[in-house]
Amino acid sequence: MRFIVSVTYGIPMAAGLWLIGVPGALLWGVLATIMRFVPYVGPMIAAVFPLTLAFAVAPGWEMLLWTLGLILVLELISNNVIEPWLYGSSTGLSTLAIIMAATFWTALWGPIGLILSTPLTVCCLVLGRYLPGLQFMEVLLGSEPVLHPPQRLYQRLLADDVNGAIELAHADIAQRLPAKPSAQDKAGAVADFYAEVGVPSLQLAYKHHTENATAEHRLRLFNGWAAVLEELAEEFPAAQPPLAVNPAPHVLCVGARWEIDALAADMMAHSLQLQGVPARSASHALTPALAAEEMADWGQAQWLVLSTFHAQPRALVRQILRRVRRRYPQLKVVLTLWNGGPAVLQEQALARLGADAVATSVLELLLRMAQLMAPDPAPLGYVAAALPKDDEARVQFLEHSGALLPVHAPMYKEAVLKAANVFNVKYAQVSLVGHDWVYTPGSLLSNTTPPGAQPGLPRDLSICSYVVRDSADLVVEDVARDPRFSDNPALVGAGVKFYAGVPLKTTKGYILGTLCILHDAPRTLADDEMQVLHARAEYLV
Length: 541
Hints:
The protein is α/β, with parallel strands linked by helices. It is built from 20 helices and eleven strands. Helix 9 crosses helix 10 (about 185-210), helix 9 (about 160-175) packs across helix 11 and helix 17 runs antiparallel to helix 20. The relative contact order is 0.05.
């Protein structure tokens, strides 16, 4: 950053002196670039030479004044625009913090404080980032937002800042999109926004619904979210499904009781539409009595997606489904329980609810609906990963790379032992994905491979095949809640409930397999833990 700042100062300096007519303009530009590496004092020294030369060679005052003006303008722009912007982005400091720190340390220690202001402020920022008692300094000095995206969106809506909420939604989705997004990329980005920002913000609203929120706050939230969803529906319209004999929607999304349930239903309908599923949502949540007119147009739907944030939804759901079954016995129901606890998600409790399927997240709902609505459901009870386009070349590279040689087995074993200890999980594994077989020369899972064969399992049964197909990380916090893997016999037999895998990617771009960690209980993985897992994978490659 120091080099970039110096160059952005030296080039305009040389060009300006050349236009003014000062001899040796290129020399003074190079000198100014070099002297910028001496904080604050260096530019003063570099300015002396062109000013002295301008005073000496010109008979009047014009060249001197033009040179002085050029230096002052460049100093003002560099010190107050370029330096705070670039230093702030590279150190994590906010631009305002850099300016205020320079003022504070100069007032305290004079010129020495001015020279040391940025490194001292960075030290304060680091202390605040890693010492809980000094965390307030990270909030004051850092450039990262204090609130997480769901909280920021919720705050915007409560403050009646609908435009700010819409901008936040657009910015979040834009960050998830590649440079040239396809329709599938857009659908995935919108669904991820709903999953990671939209639904969590509604969970905050549910928590405050009866505790702290007033009627005015609820009205602001509902009207603001309606505007955000309308904007997203216009920005990311769903492709029109092909006309069928019955053009009525196949999926109807409704909210169980409150307006926040209806807002979640709107999100699910939009996500399903972007996935190519004919779906629509009801205009409002159901009333407690569930009048007949509310169900008047439900007969043409094949699936009902019932959304609720209620923490104990059993009585509410049973009441609604009893009336729905009485009028539309052919209607299949999928429950989306956004706040369902472990007791609610037990198999016996779910069976008593009487629904055909249950989802607890946006991804699970999309996968579950794709599985239930597929014309030819997977006969094996699980979904195998499709082969990537360049899989033949990838497999050939794997076979000729030497990664499958037995000499590497001790290294793989050491890597999985370290990974299991570092992440405090029961299992870890190095998987090298071949054409039909996934080799596991390093694995802590029980080996059921026949004698004489290389350790591993069929590729159709391997969850690591998804990492290879997508060339991306995969984290499954609860295998039982993911339709792709919940009935996988390899995972069920090993008692695996959690999976996190990162690709083993070579410098030539080929993915040999994965380094993954597995556990016998659901859990989450923080961002810094994923970075550690990536570092271990890079060490193996």
